[in-house]
Structures are given as structure tokens and as C-alpha cells.
Design brief:
The chain has 446 residues and is α/β, with parallel strands linked by helices. The longest helix has 24 residues. The structure holds glutamine (GLN). Glutamine binds next to loops.
Length: 446
Amino acid sequence: QAFKTIQERDDRVGAYLTLDEEKARATARRLDDQLIAGGDRGLLFGLPVGIKDNIVTDGLRTTCASQFLSNFNPVYDATVTKKLRHADSVILGKLNMDEFAMGGSNENSSFHPVRNPWNLEYVPGGSSGGSAASVAAGEAYFTLGSDTGGSIRQPASYCGVVGLKPTYGLVSRFGLVAFASSLDQIGPVTKNVEDSAYVLQAIAGYDSMDSTSANVDIPDYLSALTGDVKGLRIAVPKEYIGEGVDASVKEKIMDALKVLEGLGAVWEEVSLPHTEYAVATYYLLASSEASSNLARFDGVRYGVRANNPSNLLDLYHESRSQGFGPEVKRRIMLGTYALSSGYYDAYYLKAQKVRTLIKRDFDQVFEKYDIIIGPTAPTTAFKLGSQVDNPLTMYLNDILTIPVSLAGVPAVSIPCGFVDGLPVGMQIIGKSFDESTVLRVAHAFE
Ligand code: GLN
């Protein structure tokens, strides 16, 4: 059935880059047999899943939506892929994205853009656009995305689905092709909050293969979904509902706060004073890390190699010129510049310091409040092609998701109404490793 829906709809949506129909059918048959034999059932038994194409899958092409990796077949599974198999889900295929997860509209895919299922003229958001659009279009029961500066939450918001970015370190990054290692996190995209809790339960946990994996106890996320938010203290940052945020988006968030108030929660306005520096800080740090992480793509080790190079340097040069798209090159240049000697202190080191200030903003608010709420993005989805000429306006769309990434704390985007037929997303931000409260509030509102 999943493949039938994909066949009917994906011509228009463009969410998938690679399908794995034969293997998926074999898995489904094996699960059938298991069911008949009365064997144990995994947590995600029989659920059809799509995986973002920067998460490696043994024997299944993994491109990061880049021409560089257009022929790359990994020989191992990412830890999350393994966990999905272990939980008895059925992997359908790999999902479209912005090249190497750099972008916020999916227009940076080197294959084809993804379209928003609610209106095909509009972008689905990015970089996990395929992950969000496929769930919204019913082309997967749930999906995995990755979030470095908003790439799960922003597309979830644009597509009207639930997207969770876990605390940095909660979900293993082993087998996630690195963009900015100090920010990257894998998380679930689902239709509702309960499903999000199920998937998180299946993929969270310590992994010795990831040196930044946190060794913490994993709570029972399902039991957190009590519906009870009585006495909950909500902080609403004034920077998240001020200038630059669409009035109609703000209105939806205010309506949602009223609903939570009706359920017994209380909210107050607070300030996260360093918010205005977050975008600049993020693009410096993320690009610096990317320039270093992407150095491994040299035409020798992975993917496509340039033809007839005149010498080794020329091989590197030509492979990288041909393999990477324009946005990836822009970030590598920016990052290399920021890390180069003489500029390091002025840019990279400075940005690290501002990152600490941004994190402190959150620490201070969480001393008094249980949760922070605001919009996920300043606007609803925009028209395909309307922002491609101006990377800076594109970068500014991330203003409300980036601070959370820099602070490393968890946040979920859930649907909270429509403006002109396009979904609005509300962002619920929690303390480090307190996904339970984030999910509880999201579930109560839903
Ligand atoms: N839009 C942001 C960027 O382009 C976020 C990307 C992400 O989270 N992977 O970097």
C-alpha cells in the first residue's frame, strides 16, 4: 500500500530519491511470518518508514542529495537504521533533502526540489523537506530527518506534521553524514505526538560509536503523555513574537497559548536577549565545521571521481568543482575563511563565545520556567523559487530554530492551525534531556 501511494503521488511531491521496494516487501513478508508464528513484535512493528538521504543504509544508495555521492552505496548501517530494523519497521527508501543538509527549502537538492503537499507551488521547507512532505502526503508512516539549525522543525512546520529535534547527544550520530558535528541531531517526523514518542523511544540511547553520545537513562516517553499540564510554567520569548514574525503566525501561537491556559498552564513573556546574534553565530560555526567535515570528499575515497585529471591536485580540484553544488561551495568557502589563521580569533572563536551566551539565555529562563513556546518559523511556507536568489533572506528564516540548536536543547514543532491554506508550526522547547515534558505539552495541546 505504501508503494502504491508513493507511485500515485511522488511524481508531484518529489520526496523520494531512492526506493527499496524489493527488500521492503521481503521484510514485510518476514514480519507476517513472525506474526503468524506468534513471535515477539518490535516497537515499530510493520510501520513503513522513509529515511533522510544523509543517514547511511547498508546496500542502499545514500546520496545526501549531492552529485558527489550519486553512486555511493554504504557498506554498513547507521546506528539509527539498525535500531529501526531492530524495532521491526519496514524501510521504504531514501528521502530528498537540501544537498548535505544545507538549506531551508529543499531547492538545494542536486536532483530535484520537493514540493509542499498542501500546495505544490510552495516549498516544503528544508533541509529535511522529503522527510516532512512524505509524511504529510501519506507516502510514509513516519520518517527520520536531521536537524542542524532547524532542518527537522522548519519543514515539519511548513508541512503541518510533528518534527522533533532531540537534545544533542540523545540519538547517536554514527552513520549520519556530518554537516556540523557539534549541532547535528537525528529525530522523528510523524503525523502526531504519540508516534513521535514511539519513534524516539526506539532510536534514543547511548552508543559507543558516537563520541558525543550521552550516557543517560532513557525514560518511558509514552508514559509522559498524560494530558496534564496543570501548573506548567511557560515562557514566551518576546524576540520570538516580535518584529519579523508574521502577525497571522503570531495570532495562531497566541490562540494556542490560550488553549494551554485553559488546561491550567500559566505563561509569561521573557527575553532571550542574544537571539539577534544567533543566525550570524550559527552560519559561522556550522560553515566552519562543514568545511572541515567535507574535506573528506576528495574524489579518492567516496563517490564520483573526475575524469582524466592531470595530477593528484587536479583530481581533488575537479572532483570537488563538479561534485558540489553552489550552496555547499559557498559554505565551504565561508568556513575555510573563518578558520584560516589570522581570522580564527576574530570569527570562529568569537562565534564560540556568543554561542555560550546564547546557551546561557536558555539556562536562565529554565531556572524559572518548565518550557519555552513560540513559533517554529516567522512565516508559513514560501513560493518555490521566491528566495533562491538571496541566500541571506533564506538564512533569516532560521532565526527561531537556530538558537535552540546552538543551546543543544530539545524542541518539537507541532501543527497549530492554517494561514491561507498553509500550516503554521508551534515550537515547544525544553530543558536538556527533558523530552518527556516537551512531548507531554505537545500531546496535551494536540
Ligand atoms: N537552514 C539551515 C541551514 O541551511 C539549517 C539546516 C539544517 O538544520 N540542516 O544550515
